[in-house]
UniProtKB/TrEMBL annotation:
Its cofactor is Zn(2+). Residues 1-20 form the signal peptide. One of its GO terms (molecular function) is metal ion binding. GO terms for cellular component: membrane. The keyword Signal applies. This is Peptidase M48. Residues 90-256 form the Peptidase M48 domain. GO terms for biological process: proteolysis involved in protein catabolic process. It comes from Aquimarina atlantica. Binds 1 zinc ion per subunit.
């Protein structure tokens, strides 16, 4: 890259950079590109993924994914509104899809674009187990973990890509850059791992969301016991590599369940499915 291009790019990055406090984590996060610009790129990636995979429609399982997703989305909105963050989700376009794939996995892209693989259904076991996974995945998106995992180089690329899209429409290379930034690795649809602290954060936030949505938070620990039993020592893909150990996770979720119930009570939710 020549110097002039670098300067233009740097200027672009600085233009887009601003700090914001994330309502879910209370941390200052770098909002490098506004949601209104970056989320449409995520939506494009999501649609491409759906186009290249077998989406299951109309079955009771597919309906369950949608039902749970809508409740978790609603819980997120209620929590945000109650805490003074009206409009935080204004650029979100929630969508929930079940995809035929034997991998034990699920993910949520920025902007509320969710995929569950059929391989996770037997371990989730029931609607409450689905809610525990859904809460966790949605929490990653709400806490902006995807952006935080990007390197400085990727931040520059995405800011540049956002400008390129604004100026000249989309192209293949831009899609690749954005895909990498959102964690869709070289194997399309396999999300890159989050850091251990992000996993723990998503567990805590997700537990509250599932409780506010009316699902029994005690079941999250049960889900992870099943994950542990199923994995034979190996964690499923989204939870790979830097995840907390299953035992730490189960202990945390068990310890946090009463606080999640207390949070749900603030929203008038006192009985749980
Ligand atoms: Zn996670």
């Amino acid at each position: 890259m020549n110097t002039r291009k670098s300067i233009v790019l740097l200027g672009t990055v600085l233009l887009f950079m601003s700090c914001a406090t994330n309502p879910f984590t209370g941390k200052q996060t770098l909002a490098l590109v506004p949601n209104s610009q970056i989320l449409p790129m995520a939506f494009q990636q999501y649609n491409q993924f759906l186009g290249e995979n077998k989406v299951i429609k109309g079955t009771s399982d597919a309906q369950m994914i949608t039902r749970v997703g809508q409740k978790i989305a609603k819980a997120s909105e209620r929590w945000l509104n109650a805490n003074g963050y009206q409009g935080y989700l204004k650029d979100y376009k929630w969508e929930y899809n079940l995809v035929e794939d034997k991998n034990v996995n699920a993910w949520c892209m920025p902007g509320g674009k969710i995929v569950f693989y059929t391989g996770i259904l037997p371990i989730a076991k029931n609607e409450t187990g689905i809610a525990a996974v859904m809460g966790h995945e949605v929490a990653h998106a709400l806490a902006n973990h995807g952006q935080q995992r990007m390197s400085a180089g990727q931040i520059q690329q995405v800011a540049g890509a956002a400008t390129a899209i604004a100026v000249s429409g989309k192209d293949q290379k831009t899609q690749q850059i954005v895909g990498t930034a959102f964690g869709l690795g070289s194997q399309f649809g396999v999300m890159l791992p989050f850091s251990r602290s992000h996993e723990t954060e998503a567990d805590r936030i997700g537990l509250q969301l599932m409780a506010i949505a009316g699902y029994n938070p005690d079941e999250a620990a049960e889900l992870w016991k099943r994950m542990k039993a199923n994995s034979g020592g190996q964690a499923p893909p989204e939870f790979m590599s830097t995840h907390p150990s299953s035992d730490t996770r189960i202990a945390n979720l068990t310890a946090w369940a009463p606080a999640a119930r207390a949070e749900a009570k603030k929203f008038g939710v006192t009985t749980f499915k």
